[in-house]
Design brief:
Chain lengths: 90, 582
């Protein structure tokens, strides 16, 4: 039981680290590039867009989709590792 | 074939499909009725979630709003998609692991209190009914414009359809009809967008055409639009006028609200396991992003098209659609400088901004209005933002079948969302209020009967909202998101990520969030609407964005009270450990 708990703790900590990492990118592209620094980024052009405007109306949405799929992949690995460790201890 | 006949055919076929699916997927148990027996494939659930989420507002209104707001419209684009990242990373997997039927189920169990459950039920019902009212109205508008039946008859037909498949099939029926509705609505949204993109930029992908050069002109679309707008005295399309803090707060309130909307969360209870819950959040966002990245492109095409096809054009030569929408009062023109030509400029053309028609016609055949001309600007036109998507195919002179398709798509968007909302309302009543609180020993069969009965009652109420729309339908949208952000989202999130939050903390937090957000919105929207401007707002935050502050208050109070009272009992700690395991 004790073993299992440390195993869950490890799993949980890895999960929190992953989530925090992904959420910082989430914050950076939407609130950062799309809102706080939008006027600064607008001096650069990206194809026919001003860069800040592009992040606000297109870019951030693409990044959101990518973030969720990274999360799905990474959690799949974490889940496997967790189940594997639990089986070893049983 | 006429547009009207085509619309009857398209709408008729799509309704036939929904009914066929409903008959094929009847629900026989409460589990099937509430959460489709947990057997929905992640991709199907992703589509159903997308249709559930994208309402008449996303389909009909959003591109129009962005078209008029320019860059400030980004709050809706980021706010209504970014919430899915929160949902996928913070809520969906754990709620699926918890494995019950409803959102109040989780809050009631995690905070070991029926009172917490009831507070959650109240929040859920307020949020969901606000939403449903708007859907039914959307159904009515589409019916009256394209099928030329009375708005009320339209609402009743819509109610009948939803009644049939929701009562019969419950969540199971709703899920598979939503999959079909997603296909209809996304096809209906993309076809005109692709056509218009080709027409204006020659690029068939609207997301790319948005940043491409205009045909026969070396200029990029957006810089051309900026130029046209500056010339007419508007702010450039790609710059905003809202303050940064307000944009920040509105985006945050919409994101957190999205993640806390009960009818969206409950969709993740319907998949087989935790991994599938994560996957379906990902698929849902892809399916939503297809529409949400197209919308801003459509918005900019429409704005440019609007100026090019009507500015400085004499009314007699104005395009057909201009007069069609004028006929039903969503466009109005007042010839302020008496030159017989239509002119656009910045500012409201007349006071008050919404036109009131007398039954007379002017010299050019235009409908006359009794509003006073606003002499501080040269604008002569009123255009209702809601018509942009519906009128776009006509503005771009697309063939009649595209117009019919858009009508069917708008109906799919409105009906799918209405059905999802009605289901969570009825579940909250039959499951949370009856089975879990006031009538604990009813049998499953009886509970199912009550679920069907309460869906029936909810449909009637929703229909009444559609037929007698409360004047505030458009304004209360801020309620739904603000309230979900300030109450349900933090309660669920803290319940998963903190073992220390107890029932005293969570209940007080939800109540503080609810009361604060509600009073701020009521104060500015209903009591003192004349003061609803940035000078009077708290820190310059509009009522649309105040849910974010409500959420921060909720968090703060919950932690403060939880840490000064006893920690939750051991069985709750064990339950939290349990839901954290994959």
């Amino acid at each position: 039981m004790k073993e299992k708990n440390t195993n869950l703790d490890q799993y949980w900590r890895a999960n929190i680290r992953l989530v925090l990492g992904l959420l910082s990118i989430w914050f950076l592209v939407s609130y950062g590039c799309g809102i706080l620094f939008v006027d600064f980024l607008d001096q650069y052009t990206f194809f026919g867009f001003k860069l800040g405007f592009w992040f606000a109306q297109q870019g951030s949405i693409f990044v959101f989709v990518i973030l969720i799929f990274i999360y799905i992949q990474q959690m799949k690995k974490l889940d496997l590792l967790y189940k594997h460790k639990n089986r070893e201890e049983d | 074939m006429s547009v009207q006949l085509l619309t009857y055919i398209f709408v008729g076929i799509s309704f036939g499909i929904y009914l066929f699916i409903a008959i094929r997927s009847r629900a026989n148990s409460t589990s099937e009725f509430y959460i489709a027996g947990k057997g929905v494939h992640p991709i199907a659930n992703g589509m159903a979630t997308a249709a559930d989420w994208m309402s008449a507002a996303s389909f009909i209104s959003m591109a129009g709003i962005i078209s008029f707001m320019g860059r400030d419209g980004s709050v809706y684009l980021m706010g209504w998609t970014g919430g899915y990242v929160l949902l996928a990373l913070l809520l969906a997997p754990y709620l699926r692991k918890f494995g019950q039927f409803t959102v109040p189920d989780f809050i009631g169990t995690r905070y070991y209190s029926s009172f917490a459950r009831i507070v959650a039920v109240v929040c859920l019902i307020v949020v969901s009914f606000t939403y449903v009212a708007g859907q039914m109205r959307g159904v009515g508008i589409v019916f009256s414009r394209f099928l030329e039946v009375d708005i009320n008859t339209g609402v009743m037909i819509g109610m009948g359809i939803v009644f049939f498949y929701a009562v019969l099939g419950g969540m199971k029926g709703i899920t598979y009809t939503q999959v079909a509705q997603y296909c209809v609505l996304i096809f209906a949204y993309l076809v005109p967008a692709v056509f218009i993109s080709i027409l204006i930029t020659g690029n068939p992908i609207p997301q790319l055409g948005f940043g491409d050069q205009v045909i026969d002109d070396p200029q990029y679309l957006l810089s051309k639009l900026d130029g046209v707008m500056t010339q007419l005295g508007f702010e450039p399309y790609t710059s905003g006028i809202k303050s940064t803090i307000d944009v920040f707060c509105i985006t945050a309130a919409l994101m957190l609200g999205t993640a806390g909307l009960p009818h969206v969360i409950v969709r993740f209870f319907t998949v087989p396991d935790v991994a599938a819950a994560r996957q379906s959040a990902g698929y849902a966002l892809i399916f939503i992003a297809i529409l949400y990245t197209t919308a801003p492109a459509v918005a900019s095409f429409a704005r440019l098209n609007l100026f090019e096809s009507t500015h400085n054009v004499s009314y007699e030569n104005a395009p057909e659609w201009f007069k069609n929408w004028e006929d039903i009062g969503l466009i109005a023109w007042k010839d302020k400088n008496n030159d017989g030509k239509i002119q656009h400029a910045n500012g409201n053309a007349f006071e008050p901004a919404k036109p009131k028609f007398n039954e007379k016609k002017g010299v050019y055949g235009q409908r006359l209005i009794i509003n006073e001309a606003n002499t501080t600007n040269n604008n002569e036109v009123y255009i209702d933002r809601d018509i942009i998507v519906l009128a776009n195919p006509e503005i771009a002179q697309l063939p009649p079948w595209v117009i019919a398709l858009v009508a069917a798509g708008a109906l799919a968007a409105a009906l799918s969302t209405a059905a999802g909302l009605l289901l969570v309302i009825s579940t909250a009543v039959s499951h949370d209020l009856l089975k879990k609180t006031f009538a604990k020993n009813i049998t499953e069969k009886k509970e199912l009967l009550f679920a069907r009965l309460s869906i029936f009652v909810s449909i009637i109420i929703a229909g009444l909202f559609g037929i007698y729309p409360p004047a505030f339908v458009a304004q209360v949208v801020a309620f739904a998101f603000g309230l979900a952000a300030a109450t349900l989202f933090p309660a669920i999130c803290m319940g998963i990520f903190s073992k220390r939050i107890n029932k005293q903390g969570a209940i007080t937090g939800m109540l503080v969030g609810l009361i604060f957000t509600l009073s701020y919105i009521i104060y500015f929207k209903f009591l003192f609407p004349e003061m609803n401007s940035s000078e009077y707002w708290f820190l310059g935050i509009s009522p649309e964005g105040i849910g974010f502050i409500g959420m921060l208050l909720n968090l703060f109070i919950s932690f403060l009270i939880s840490f000064s009272t006893a920690p939750p009992p051991n069985d709750i700690i064990e339950m939290i450990d349990e839901i954290r395991q994959p």
